[in-house]
Structures are given as C-alpha cells and as structure tokens.
C-alpha cells in the first residue's frame, strides 16, 4: 500500500491509521 502511505504523508491525516 505504498500509494496509500504516500497519500497519508501528503494528507493531514495520521499516516499510521492509513499505513496500518
């Protein structure tokens, strides 16, 4: 889920929630 991780970093949302 590399794309989701990238979005998590660019978004103000917690990356941990999307990365997990």
From TrEMBL:
Q: Where does the source fall among the domains of life? A: Bacteria
Q: What is this protein called?
A: DNA damage-inducible protein I
**Species name:** Salmonella typhimurium
Upper classification of the source organism reads: Bacteria, Pseudomonadati, Pseudomonadota, Gammaproteobacteria, Enterobacterales
């Amino acid at each position: 889920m590399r794309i989701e991780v990238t979005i998590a970093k660019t978004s103000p949302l917690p990356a941990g929630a999307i990365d997990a």
